């Protein structure tokens, strides 16, 4: 019974997703703590003298309603417990952090005007901007910062993003109304970068919590507030009249509804039912670009699609086997088939669009080399391998199908086990796989690429990779601030990592948005955040 | 019909509802996948997952979880969604009307197609008309609903621009808008339902038309119209009502897909999301609601039987 049920379910989901062809999507909001700004300094009071709203200028036109269509329904709006990409896309416009990444991905002061680090490197003191109000009209103070962060790092909250602020024993203290200090058990050099990255560490008013201890509608200091919430089928963001950046936001309101099916969503855009869509199926990009009534905006993602190999299982514990896999694949072809060419092949975690890109690419396709490596490892007749993509991200399933053929030529017999999200997460989290396919998302600093996903024993290290030399390098990398110096360190770390091949990197995708030409002031960001306060309607 | 029968019938319904909720709870717990992991996403580590499971009560034994759900459900509290934290009952009540409207409209369209097509082809089995309707219903039965839905969207929304491709307006807000949004999803589910109905109506009619009393009626010299409508259709209706009841049941599952395609804010979509997220309370709530609705439909079918055919007796 269970089997039939499962099969029907999988079948149904597969059909749905095929129909939907799950757009460019929604990477799994992967993230970790910490981000440094490439050229900017990390520690040592990184804030400029004068704090200013970075989006600057003014709205050419105010008022109006933007009708936006998302691909997925949001899964809860409590910034501390949700991990859903669709939820973050909403929270980005409701909550704000003490620091912020501007459209060029430079770290800038935001709700904090400045910050400094103590001599011993363990305590950060942040000075809040005065006169910032929550959307309910109450002024935000250091107490709210303390409350928000304490709730986030409380293990009972069960937040996957708690590490952005620090471990559970981090001490957060109110110095005065506009000053807060954060003391970490260990030096946390890139704390300002870490809290600028997503909205989990954004400041929420304690009034957001209802009598049962749940947050259904978070109250923040952002340009918009959530006014109508019809389950997960319709949500209205209304301008926050108390917003601290004068003259913003430009829009009166944004009506957000999920339309899961790609064709239907794009039809709604072309027919003028909606003004803006969050995701476009890659196969439809060319067609939409021909439509003069549609603007298709793209930016290279900082996230990568990759194969994670289970190092706790034979024969994948043998580096030669992993290298054989890396040699067996044709990344350009994968990009074409997996994402309709809207991507760039990569051989390490950082892509050519990143300031942390390293020109080290030893794995151009070489089937003979792959066979030879397998033979050296004791598998002259090849090996078997189960690929585990997820139906949640259809491009991973497409990639698996291409991989299957490419690997076969090198004597690796791959089977595909495409799982729905919930089951996939469980297997991935418990090392119950040979090789999974997914993307790692929304990264800015080298630390985010190299530390948490690859360091021995860390929480995002899902492959069981461990190399003491690599660990030493990435630990050193996060302790210093000079870009050039760090670049050299990560260059070495990158080489070790790519040679060890716990992950086989495939490509960077493009982030794609589409909207009507009268939607102005919108920027597609490589970190996938959609910020709407500068958006205005030219109609 | 007597009260004893009614009471028996209602008691049976309660047992069925209990069985259904238990079965669904069991199945969804047996299927791999964990709501705590869905909530935490790829950044979940074992520690976080364990803490969240504890907080959500997911580490309690299965029977305890079911018992607790049942106890609260009996008091009218269907709990809170694990994923969104919103109370389940208001969400369901908000979405139920949309599904009922869609299912009713689809059934209506199905009847508009199925009844005449079935009757006409039964009257002249093997005729060209019969072949055409059979072909139509064969295609209709085989066509996947999401595909038909997308074809209709491409034709009526994209190409012709007559109807909105997705969305929903409550009937109380704007009737015209409500209708415009209803047409395509109802047509999608309705065409498929109609082609199934065609086959059932045809065979029900054929069977009845071969009965002795039809021959008697004809022998009495009654007009063909009276024979077909009063004697034939009246008796075939018993079977047809059963079919319609079953069809409504089937539509409830068909609308899951249709609701997703057309972004129709109904229960089906809610249930699907609940399954994918392993959102146990939400899934239990939607399943219970659907089961209640279907139990009522079955009850109605039984009652209609009684009125259609006084010979039916209930022991």
TrEMBL record, chain A:
<dbReference type="GO" id="GO:0043190">
    <property type="term" value="C:ATP-binding cassette (ABC) transporter complex"/>
</dbReference>
<dbReference type="InterPro" id="IPR039424">
    <property type="entry name" value="SBP_5"/>
</dbReference>
<comment type="similarity">
    <text>Belongs to the bacterial solute-binding protein 5 family.</text>
</comment>
<keyword id="KW-0732">Signal</keyword>
<dbReference type="GO" id="GO:0015833">
    <property type="term" value="P:peptide transport"/>
</dbReference>
<dbReference type="Pfam" id="PF00496">
    <property type="entry name" value="SBP_bac_5"/>
</dbReference>
<dbReference type="GO" id="GO:0042597">
    <property type="term" value="C:periplasmic space"/>
</dbReference>
<keyword id="KW-0813">Transport</keyword>
<feature type="domain" description="Solute-binding protein family 5">
    <location>
        <begin position="107"/>
        <end position="453"/>
    </location>
</feature>
<dbReference type="InterPro" id="IPR000914">
    <property type="entry name" value="SBP_5_dom"/>
</dbReference>
<protein>
    <submittedName>
        <fullName>ABC transporter substrate-binding protein</fullName>
    </submittedName>
</protein>
<feature type="signal peptide">
    <location>
        <begin position="1"/>
        <end position="27"/>
    </location>
</feature>
<dbReference type="GO" id="GO:1904680">
    <property type="term" value="F:peptide transmembrane transporter activity"/>
</dbReference>
<dbReference type="InterPro" id="IPR030678">
    <property type="entry name" value="Peptide/Ni-bd"/>
</dbReference>
UniProtKB/TrEMBL annotation, chain B:
<dbReference type="InterPro" id="IPR035906">
    <property type="entry name" value="MetI-like_sf"/>
</dbReference>
<keyword id="KW-1003">Cell membrane</keyword>
<feature type="transmembrane region" description="Helical">
    <location>
        <begin position="102"/>
        <end position="123"/>
    </location>
</feature>
<dbReference type="InterPro" id="IPR045621">
    <property type="entry name" value="BPD_transp_1_N"/>
</dbReference>
<keyword id="KW-0812">Transmembrane</keyword>
<dbReference type="GO" id="GO:0005886">
    <property type="term" value="C:plasma membrane"/>
</dbReference>
<dbReference type="Pfam" id="PF19300">
    <property type="entry name" value="BPD_transp_1_N"/>
</dbReference>
<dbReference type="Pfam" id="PF00528">
    <property type="entry name" value="BPD_transp_1"/>
</dbReference>
<comment type="similarity">
    <text>Belongs to the binding-protein-dependent transport system permease family.</text>
</comment>
<dbReference type="InterPro" id="IPR000515">
    <property type="entry name" value="MetI-like"/>
</dbReference>
<dbReference type="GO" id="GO:0055085">
    <property type="term" value="P:transmembrane transport"/>
</dbReference>
<feature type="transmembrane region" description="Helical">
    <location>
        <begin position="287"/>
        <end position="308"/>
    </location>
</feature>
<feature type="transmembrane region" description="Helical">
    <location>
        <begin position="178"/>
        <end position="196"/>
    </location>
</feature>
<keyword id="KW-1133">Transmembrane helix</keyword>
<protein>
    <submittedName>
        <fullName>ABC transporter permease</fullName>
    </submittedName>
</protein>
<feature type="transmembrane region" description="Helical">
    <location>
        <begin position="135"/>
        <end position="158"/>
    </location>
</feature>
<keyword id="KW-0472">Membrane</keyword>
<keyword id="KW-0813">Transport</keyword>
<feature type="transmembrane region" description="Helical">
    <location>
        <begin position="12"/>
        <end position="31"/>
    </location>
</feature>
<feature type="transmembrane region" description="Helical">
    <location>
        <begin position="237"/>
        <end position="267"/>
    </location>
</feature>
<feature type="domain" description="ABC transmembrane type-1">
    <location>
        <begin position="96"/>
        <end position="305"/>
    </location>
</feature>
């Amino acid at each position: 019974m269970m089997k039939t049920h499962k099969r029907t379910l999988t079948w149904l989901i597969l059909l749905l997703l095929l129909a939907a062809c799950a757009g460019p999507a929604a990477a799994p909001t992967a993230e970790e703590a910490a981000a440094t700004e490439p050229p900017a300094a990390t520690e040592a009071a990184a804030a400029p003298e004068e704090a200013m709203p970075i989006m600057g200028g003014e709205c050419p036109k105010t008022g109006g309603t933007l009708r936006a269509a998302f691909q997925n329904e949001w899964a809860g709006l409590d910034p501390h417990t949700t991990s859903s990409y669709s939820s973050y896309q909403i929270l980005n416009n409701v909550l704000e952090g003490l620091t912020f990444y501007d459209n060029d991905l430079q770290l800038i002061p935001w709700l904090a005007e400045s910050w400094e680090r103590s001599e011993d490197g363990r305590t950060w003191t942040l000075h809040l901007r005065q006169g910032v109000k929550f959307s309910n009209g109450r002024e935000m103070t250091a107490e709210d910062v303390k409350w928000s962060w304490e709730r986030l790092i409380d293990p009972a909250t069960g937040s996957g993003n708690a590490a952005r602020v620090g471990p559970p024993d981090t001490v957060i203290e109110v110095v005065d109304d506009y000053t807060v200090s954060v003391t970490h058990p260990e030096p946390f050099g890139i704390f300002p970068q870490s809290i600028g990255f997503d909205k989990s560490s954004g400041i929420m008013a304690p009034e957001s919590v209802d009598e049962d201890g749940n947050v259904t509608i978070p109250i923040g200091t952002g340009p918009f507030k959530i006014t109508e919430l019809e389950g997960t089928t319709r949500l209205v963001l209304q301008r926050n009249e108390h917003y601290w950046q004068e003259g913003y936001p430009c829009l009166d309101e944004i009506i957000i509804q999920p339309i899961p099916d790609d064709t239907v969503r794009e039809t709604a855009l072309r027919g003028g039912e909606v003004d803006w869509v969050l995701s476009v199926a890659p196969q439809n990009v060319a067609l939409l670009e021909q439509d003069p009534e549609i603007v298709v905006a793209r930016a290279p993602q900082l996230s990568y699609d990759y194969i994670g190999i289970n190092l706790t299982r034979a024969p994948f514990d043998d580096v030669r086997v992993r290298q054989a896999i890396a040699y067996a694949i044709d990344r350009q072809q994968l990009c074409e088939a997996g994402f309709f060419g809207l991507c760039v092949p990569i051989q390490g975690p950082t892509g050519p669009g990143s300031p942390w890109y390293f020109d080290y690419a030893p794995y151009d396709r070489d089937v003979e080399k792959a066979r030879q490596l397998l033979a050296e490892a004791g598998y002259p007749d090849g090996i078997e391998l189960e690929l585990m993509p997820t139906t949640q991200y259809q491009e991973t399933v497409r990639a698996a199908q291409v991989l299957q053929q490419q690997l076969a030529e090198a004597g690796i017999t791959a089977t595909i086990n495409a799982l729905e999200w919930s089951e996939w997460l469980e297997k991935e989290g418990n090392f119950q796989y040979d090789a999974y396919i997914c993307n790692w998302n929304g990264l800015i600093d080298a630390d985010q690429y190299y530390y948490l996903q690859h360091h021995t024993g860390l929480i995002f290290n899902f492959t069981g990779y461990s190399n003491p030399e690599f660990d030493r390098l990435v630990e050193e990398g996060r302790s210093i601030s000079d870009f050039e110096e760090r670049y050299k360190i990560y260059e070495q770390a990158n080489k070790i990592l790519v040679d060890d091949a716990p992950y086989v990197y495939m490509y960077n995708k493009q982030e794609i948005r589409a909207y009507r030409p009268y939607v102005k002031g919108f920027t597609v960001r490589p970190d996938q955040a959609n910020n709407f306060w500068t958006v205005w309607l030219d109609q | 019909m007597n009260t004893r029968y009614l009471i028996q019938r209602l008691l049976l319904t309660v047992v069925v509802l209990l069985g259904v909720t238990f079965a669904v709870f069991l199945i969804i717990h047996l299927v791999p996948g964990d709501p705590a992991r869905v909530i935490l996403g790829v950044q979940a580590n074992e520690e976080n997952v364990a803490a969240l499971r504890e907080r959500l009560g997911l580490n309690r034994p299965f029977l305890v979880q079911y018992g607790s759900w049942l106890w609260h459900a009996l008091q009218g509290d269907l709990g809170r969604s694990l994923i969104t934290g919103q109370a389940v009952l208001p969400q369901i009540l908000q979405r139920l009307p949309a599904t009922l409207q869609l299912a009713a409209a689809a059934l209506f369209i199905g009847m508009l197609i199925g009844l005449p097509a079935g009757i006409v082809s039964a009257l002249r089995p093997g005729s060209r008309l019969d072949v055409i309707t059979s072909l139509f219903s064969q295609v209709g039965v085989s066509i996947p609903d999401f595909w038909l839905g997308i074809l209709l969207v491409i034709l009526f929304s994209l190409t012709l621009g007559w109807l909105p491709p997705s969305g929903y307006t409550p009937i109380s807000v704007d009737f015209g808008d409500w209708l415009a949004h209803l047409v395509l999803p109802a047509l999608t589910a309705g065409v498929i339902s109609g082609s199934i109905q065609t086959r059932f109506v045809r065979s029900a009619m054929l069977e009845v038309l071969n009965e002795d009393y039809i021959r008697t009626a004809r022998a009495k010299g009654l007009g063909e119209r009276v024979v077909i409508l009063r004697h034939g259709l009246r008796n075939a209706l018993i079977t047809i009502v059963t079919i319609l009841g079953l069809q409504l049941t089937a539509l409830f599952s068909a609308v899951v897909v249709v609701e997703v395609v057309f972004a129709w804010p109904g229960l089906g979509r809610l249930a699907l999301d609940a399954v994918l997220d392993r959102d146990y309370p939400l899934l239990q709530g939607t399943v219970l609601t659907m089961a209640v609705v279907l139990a009522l439909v079955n009850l109605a079918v039984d009652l209609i039987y009684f009125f259609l055919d006084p010979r039916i007796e209930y022991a």
